[in-house]
Design brief:
3 helices; 91% helix
Length: 99
């Protein structure tokens, strides 16, 4: 079972990580603004999807912080999954811009 201190520590660490990747999303948006044509349209659509993924991760992280010890592990796993989806999507989008 997870203690309150462990849960709080996890939420703080995960929030900082989510914020850092959110900053990368801001950087990505700036780079996409410099693109043109069909590539820009596609990247803008992906940015919207990434914003949705970020919001989903933030909500699941908030939910994990609100859960009691009995439900925390499951809520943490859901938050981790949502965060991974967001982080990986941002990383892929940066990679595509480098091509």
């Amino acid at each position: 079972m997870t203690t309150t201190t462990e849960r709080e520590s996890y939420v703080k660490r995960a929030s900082r990580s989510l914020d850092a990747w959110g900053e990368r999303l801001v950087d990505l948006r700036k780079r996409v603004e410099r693109e043109a044509g069909d590539a820009k349209v596609e990247l803008e659509r992906r940015l919207e999807d990434l914003e949705t993924a970020k919001d989903r991760a933030a909500k699941r992280l908030e939910r994990a912080g609100e859960r009691g010890a009995d439900n925390f592990d499951r809520a943490r796993d859901e938050a981790e999954s949502a965060f991974s989806e967001f982080r990986d999507g941002v990383a892929r989008a940066f990679e595509e811009l480098r091509k």
